[in-house]
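Progress report, Aim 2. The chain analyzed during this reporting quarter is listed below.
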Amino acid sequence: MRLVVAVLKPSQVESVRQALAAVSVTRMTVSAAQGWQEPGGGLRQQAVLEIAVNDYFLEPTVGAITAVVEAGGESVAGRLYALPMTDAVQLYREVRGPEAV
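Predicted structure tokens for the chain:
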């Protein structure tokens, strides 16, 4: 299991959501954030997507997000992290592990 964290421009969220839906990834958390940009400094608006996936969904998820960011044509358009997850729990029923994702 992996936790994919993508930091994007808010304007890219809907395109990323559609690209992820095309590869059957439909559950995610989207948060508003502010990021500090150097040189020159200054805060800029960002969106943070958190997506828990099983290992076999990792490459399609990363590929979908990357394709949207690259299509934007900007050199510094976001960041993506794929972190290992040791457990997942569905709080509304007694399911743990990969099935909970």
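The beta strands are 2-8, 29-36, 43-53, 79-84, 89-90, 95-96. The chain has a mean pLDDT of 90. These observations will guide the mutagenesis work planned for the next reporting period.
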